[in-house]
Amino acid sequence: DLEGGKVCKKSAGGKLNCLHVMGEQQFGTGDDSGVVKVWDVRQKQPSYLFEEHEEFVTGITSDPVGKFLLSTSGDGKLSWYDLRKRGGALKAMSDEFDEELTCVELMMSGSKVITGCGVGQVQIPH
């Protein structure tokens, strides 16, 4: 809380590596143990919890309306989660890239995914 200077929510789990705001009430986090969570500021527990990554989460992003979430990891994989279902669901996971993926963003109005990798390259998966 910026006005009151108080901590509003603490995350149980591994060290957080990334954070993504998903509108006024939701945000996503990725941690050292490979866990991706989506939080609603009005609730004490995460709305969604995904444990598909084998290594630390390096990046997360979502579409503008919050229907899906993408994450990248040190395991070299890109994951796509469907947030329209209660509890969410892993929709797809890429094959392992040769290098760890370090970040992820959407471009072209959310129709293309772009990732960075550990050797300084930008990848645009098909």
From TrEMBL:
Which InterPro entries does the entry mention?
WD40/YVTN_repeat-like_dom_sf, WD40_repeat_dom_sf, WD40_rpt, WDR55/POC1
The UniProt entry, under Pfam families, shows: WD40
Q: Which domain of life is it from?
A: Eukaryota
Q: Which UniProt keywords apply?
A: Repeat, WD repeat
Q: Which family does it belong to?
A: Belongs to the WD repeat WDR55 family.
Q: What is this protein called?
A: Uncharacterized protein
Source species of the chain:
Oxyrrhis marina
